[in-house]
Amino acid sequence: xxxxxxxxxxxxxxxxxxxxxxxxxxxxxxxxxxxxxxxxxxxxxxxxxxxxxxxxxxxxxxxxxxxxxxxxxxxxxxxxxxxxxxxxxxxxxxxxxxxxxxxxxxxxxxxxxxxxxxxxxxxxxxxxxxxxxxxxxxxxxxxxxxxxxxxxxxxxxxxxxxxxxxxxxxxxxxxxxxxxxxxxxxxxxxxxxxxxxxxxxxxxxxxxxxxxxxxxxxxxxxxxxxxxxxxxxxxxxxxxxxxxxxxxxxxxxxxxxxxxxxxxxx
Length: 266
Prior knowledge:
By secondary structure, the chain is an alpha/beta fold. Helix content is 45%, strand content 19%.
């Protein structure tokens, strides 16, 4: 914990300590088999096969020498399951980051046209997000090297807000940019206009409960609240997957992250 920050925010610091104790006991009784069963049921409800998707993604990652990354999660299995069940012609990825997810998509969907967008490095927010300030040049070099390996990926340096002017249509949209208000809400609204009627929108890092250190980039309920409003108006139907199944990430409902799958209602 950051000592200086906690001294200035004693209430939040106390909540963090309570959370540590809470997680300690929740981890002891966490049943991963139960949550894996629940996750499989969500896949089945959407006519996806998680076990087959998992086998496929393991094979592809091994084939392309995909690195073992902290950012790997159930979203990769979801992509894999979609690739075997649905014809995807065009994909939009909001939030390129280091390019590795774009590379994975390009191998899962080799016949698809993939567009990935991220802020221009000249944008003042670019170096602030993901703590890029210190090693910006190296980050850009590594990202560009990964993207160069993608034969079917178009990389655009734009603020995702500007997608409001786009007339393109996509079969699959992955929203993984800023996760707080107002950006993620704008990304979701834009995605609803850009997705085909029978297309799929996926949203990463969905929190159901407010976090102790809620922020505009990583930890926010903005995605969940925005989707619930659209769902209440019967514009969409959303489904929540667990982002990760390990007890370290999934034991506590208060801090549990999800991935939302969104479909437009007929």
